[in-house]
Write a structure and sequence with these properties.
The protein is an all-alpha fold. Helices cover 39% and strands 2% of the residues. The protein has twelve helices and two strands; from the N terminus they run E-H-H-H-H-H-H-H-E-H-H-H-H-H. The protein has a two-stranded antiparallel sheet with strand order 1-2.
Length: 325
Amino acid sequence: MINGPAFDPLFRSDVITLPADHAVYEWACSVLECERPRVNQQIDLCGAHRDEWTIFSSENPGDEARAAFRRLATPLPRAEGYEPPPCRVCPGRPAFANEHQLCTRHMRRWRHHLRYGGTEEDFDTWAAEQDALPPYGNCGTTACERMATTPLGLCRFHDRSYREQGQPGGARLPDLWERYYERQGQPVPVLTDDIREFQRWCAQQGPPPNPNQINLVGLRPLVKAELQWGLEAHTRIAEPPGRRPASAIGHRTMKVVKLDAMDAIELSEMLEFIKDWLTTDDQAKARFAQFVGCPGYDAADLCADADRFVFLLGGNDGEYLFSQD
């Protein structure tokens, strides 16, 4: 189960952040230090480096061309899609730009410092003297955990989407809110024409695209648990191309299992027995819930799964399954 000691903890989170060189879900461009995602699992280069490689390989045929290209190609910085890093002064706010990793307000302060006699060499000293600003919290859309960029409560991606979609509900901040509210230490009010319409829009938004994340926020607990289990299970049976065989790193490939009619009947009866036991024994239900450790999957869910497999094995007509709403 998901909370068991054999389950990879990487896949327990609602937002699964994959390392660039993950053994199965590797996603980064293979050019050294390039921060952009590869085109797909068959092409291990980002779009820009794929185009460069097409030209390079035509001019430099040979078995060593690929390795030479990876050494010579210029790594590229991350582009759209990534979650902005936190401001280095106030970690509760997202950075406005990668240049100095500062939020919008601290970037303005830094530019003011440069305008009035400061130099780039002052940056570390200047940053150490700055006060951290209070965070705006996480994005208010259902499936997003990124930091909000303003008191409106939306991350940069969803704030842009909200404006592009015509601002349903008319949610907005007062004019000059930073000067008249935030700098005065006053809470910033969020104005709306229709608060329910704005809330409805937030509830309907999906997660922002991110090449190194799998976002499960907002899914029903059982659906989320099944996806987490499936993603983790795939790492135990997959054999990524170009890597060592699965058996060499402690994994085993799954074998095809065939059941004859008698085995299928016995398996169906065993599942029926387990289902009947769990539906009549309250202590068994409690022990099962404690063992699973996940509120999204209880004894009733296991019984429903047992019914489904009994039906697939031909043990019943599926009336229980097809009578559910």
